[in-house]
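User: Please fill in residues for this 313-position structure.
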């Protein structure tokens, strides 16, 4: 009994070469780096997602408060003394303050000054402290000594106490003067962190290789040192943003920060404290929003810290 051999009709006669499948195209391997790993971790971190959503909402509220309330926050606007200290209702969720102004409207508008102070102060502190710390750590020698001694002068001044002293001398303040004062007192912390990070990175192999290839000091500083030294600065800046918002509220509460006719959560809390027993809603709502805001920024900073610190992986 003979076996029947079936050949492919499309194959040429006498061609017994086995067919091979075309090689599958391999996907390029992902290049791992601190920043790419951090972004991937942040996308999966619920703490970052919750904090990011809250912070985004607060920023939008501070930019366009008209989207969230159509009332006037000022006493010469839609305020009516006949509604003074009325409790929350379906029409007015947060009730009225002592001047008969809608408490919800004032709370929404109060976000603007608080967010301005937090973001502006953090930006100034980060830029000034990072540049000076980068210069001191990279140059070393007499430059480092002079900048370090100069920084210690500011470090010896408590931020809140120094802010109270300077603001009391300046007199009437607003969000921008408060930001400037806190930035003057807050940059030494970023300076120290950046300086230490630069000192830890300046003698690494990639810096030696760049120098051996003929790269100049400017290129090495901003293309190699800065990207690898900035991570701890970003972590501290993200956490400090909420702290500066709380500091602004404290200064306004004491009457030396943002002042009337401007609106601030600290001012609202200060005005409501004497009425707390008879109308607790006047104080509780702005205080609760302030607490949520500070907590949101701290949550965001904690998530960034966990993502950028390789030791916590």
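Assistant: Residues filled in for all 313 positions:
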């Amino acid at each position: 009994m003979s076996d029947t051999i079936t050949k492919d009709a499309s194959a040429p006669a006498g061609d017994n070469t086995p067919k091979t499948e075309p090689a599958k195209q391999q996907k390029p391997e992902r290049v791992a780096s601190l920043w790419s790993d951090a972004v991937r971790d942040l996308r999966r971190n619920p703490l970052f997602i919750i904090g990011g959503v809250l912070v985004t909402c607060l920023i939008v509220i501070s930019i366009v408060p008209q989207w969230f309330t159509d009332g006037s926050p000022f006493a010469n606007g839609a305020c009516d003394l006949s509604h003074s200290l009325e409790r929350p209702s379906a029409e007015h969720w947060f009730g009225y303050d002592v001047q008969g102004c809608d408490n919800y409207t004032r709370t929404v508008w109060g976000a603007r000054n608080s967010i301005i102070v937090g973001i502006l102060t953090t930006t100034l502190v980060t830029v000034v402290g990072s540049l000076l710390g980068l210069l001191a750590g990279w140059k070393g020698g007499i430059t480092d000594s002079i900048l370090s001694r100069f920084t210690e002068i500011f470090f010896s001044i408590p931020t809140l106490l120094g802010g109270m002293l300077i603001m009391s001398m300046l007199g009437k303040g607003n969000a921008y003067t408060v930001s400037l004062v806190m930035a003057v007192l807050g940059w030494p912390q970023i300076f120290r962190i950046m300086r230490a990070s630069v000192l830890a990175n300046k003698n690494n192999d990639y810096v030696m290789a760049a120098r051996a290839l003929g790269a100049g000091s400017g290129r090495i500083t901003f293309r190699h040192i800065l990207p690898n030294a900035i991570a701890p600065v970003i972590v501290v800046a993200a956490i400090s943003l909420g702290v500066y918002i709380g500091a602004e509220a404290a200064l306004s509460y004491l009457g030396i920060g943002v002042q009337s006719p401007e609106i601030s959560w600290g001012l609202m809390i200060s005005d409501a404290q004497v009425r707390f027993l008879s109308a607790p809603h006047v104080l509780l709502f702005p205080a609760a929003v302030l607490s949520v805001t500070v907590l949101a920024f701290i949550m965001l900073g904690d998530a960034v810290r966990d993502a950028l610190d390789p030791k916590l992986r």
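For context: Residues 62 and 115 are 7 Å apart (CA to CA).
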